[in-house]
Design a protein that fits this description.
The strands form two sheets. This protein has a four-stranded mixed beta sheet, with helices on one face. A four-stranded mixed beta sheet has the order 5-8-7-6, covered by helices on one side. By secondary structure, it is an alpha/beta fold. 17% of the residues lie in helices and 35% in strands. It is built from two helices and eight strands; from the N terminus they run E-H-E-E-E-E-H-E-E-E. The relative contact order is 0.20. The radius of gyration is 15 Å and the shape is globular.
């Protein structure tokens, strides 16, 4: 077996336009494909983070809410590697996105913080 990288991560959102605005216009992801799927009555938006990582966004009517933030089985959070957490926090603040206080990861000693997407999905910045 040769699992060499993560190709994509998929999330389900409750508000397509709000999530598209957040991930594309505020976080800077680029759109690869955008499709409405009438047979499922949902949107599928494929976004590019880097040459090798994509984020798939599925927007369906009335998806169930997260059970508990973030301590439920399944996806806990998405983490983005950045060169400087404080610089990225400042850039996000200028776009109206509030982050938690910056702290050091207990095990790695690297600086990190969290912020949240429109549905409350925890997103991490990690040096």
């Amino acid at each position: 077996m040769n699992l060499s990288a993560i190709h994509h991560v998929a999330i389900i959102v409750s508000d397509y336009e709000a999530s598209k605005e957040f991930y594309v216009n505020k976080l800077g992801f680029s759109i690869i494909r955008e499709n409405y799927r009438p047979e499922r009555k949902d949107w599928k938006l494929d976004l590019r983070l880097s040459d090798s990582v994509e984020l798939e966004i599925f927007a369906e009517e009335n998806p169930p809410k997260r059970v508990n933030r973030p301590e439920a089985c399944g996806l806990r959070h998405l983490a983005f590697q950045v060169d400087c957490v404080e610089e990225t926090v400042n850039e996000l603040a200028a776009r109206g996105i509030v982050c938690e206080p910056v702290r050091a990861d207990t095990y790695t000693g690297k600086r990190m913080t969290f912020f949240f997407d429109p549905d409350g999905l925890p997103l991490e910045l990690h040096e």
